[in-house]
Amino acid sequence: xxxxxxxxxVVPREFRLEGPVSELVDDYAQFIESSADHIVxxxxxxxxxxxxxxxxxxxxxxxxxxxxxxxxxxx
Length: 75
Description:
The protein is mostly helical. 52% of the residues lie in helices and 0% in strands.
């Protein structure tokens, strides 16, 4: 097994943040000597802990899987 893991796929996105939130991201990144991108990624990954969201997401995926191919954009 490799010692160094493969780099995660990074997709460029653009978001608008409230001023204090933007400052918080930059300050925290400087505090831990990291990038603002890393801070935002790490913070958003915490959404996985939301059990209601996880149930909603699973129900939604099951519902989409049960639909005919054309309804999901497949021809």
